[in-house]
Write a structure and sequence with these properties.
The complex is a heterodimer of chains A (about 110) and B (about 110).
Chain A lengths: L3 E4 L2 E4 L5 E7 L5 E7 L5 E7 L6 E2 L10 E5 L2 E6 L8 E9 L3 E4 L3 E5 L1
Chain B lengths: L3 E2 L4 E5 L4 E7 L6 E7 L6 E7 L4 E4 L2 E6 L4 E6 L8 E8 L8 E2 L3 E6 L1
Parallel strand pairs in B: 2-11
Antiparallel strand pairs in B: 1-3, 3-8, 4-5, 4-9, 6-7, 7-8, 9-10, 9-11
Chain lengths: ~110, ~110
């Protein structure tokens, strides 16, 4: 399966600041997704990151709050902007391909204080 | 509206016995189903999947059953081991490899030695 390197693994941030999470994949993949897992909850899709075009956001998530970049087929970033304690979650990137199925990064545990 | 439901938040099983985790879905267009295992501070790890054209898939100690008419799938783990203790997520896809996964809320399995 594809191997994803996700950074940082965890961070503690002050409210009002921003954090950028990176995902690097060891192979070219068409579909990349960003999820959020709030404490005790399921994984909720934030957006689909498309290479060469703007990300597609799910209901309840907006580009100003969660800007995403996808400069090539192996890399993407998610920024959590103007953070508040409610943004404390685990953020995960995922890739999908016909060859490798669905693979997840190890996650970024974000705590906003 | 939750499209994938895991109605049991937790399950406790003795070592060596069978663990049965259940999942229901509402969208009849889902055609690919997966089970993931997740430890705290890690990303989900793929366990087993099943296509809608099948009703059973087996991989070692793990078997997934799909009942399309009931929109129900289950994961059987036999025999259960203490290392199986984790949160298990059921997920579904509209078109394998090309659309994001929709997750249930997870079931926490505890295997007691």
């Amino acid at each position: 399966s594809a191997v994803i390197s996700q950074k940082p693994s965890r961070d503690i941030c002050q409210r009002g600041t921003s954090l950028t999470i990176q995902c690097q994949v060891d192979s070219q993949v068409t579909m990349m997704f960003w999820y959020r897992q709030q404490p005790g909850q399921s994984l909720t899709l934030i957006a689909t990151a498309n290479q060469g075009s703007e990300a597609t956001y799910e209901s309840g998530f907006v580009i100003d709050k969660f800007p995403i970049s996808r400069p090539n087929l192996t890399f993407s970033t998610l920024t959590v902007s103007n953070m508040s304690p409610e943004d404390s979650s685990i953020y995960l990137c995922s890739v999908a391909s016909a060859n490798y199925g669905y693979t997840f990064g190890s996650g970024t545990r974000l705590t906003v204080v | 509206d939750q499209q994938v439901k895991q109605n049991s938040p937790s399950l406790s099983v003795q070592e060596g016995r069978i663990s049965i985790l259940n999942c229901d879905y509402t969208n009849s267009m889902f055609d690919y189903f997966l089970w993931y295992k997740k430890y705290p501070a890690e990303g989900p790890t793929f366990l087993i999947s099943i296509s809608s054209i099948k009703d059973k898939n087996e991989d070692g100690r793990f078997t997934v059953f799909l009942n399309k008419s009931a929109k129900h799938l289950s994961l059987h783990i036999v025999p259960s081991q203490p290392g199986d203790s984790a949160v298990y997520f059921c997920a579904a896809s509209l078109f394998a490899g090309n659309t994001p996964l929709v997750f249930g809320k997870g079931t926490r399995l505890s295997v007691i030695a």
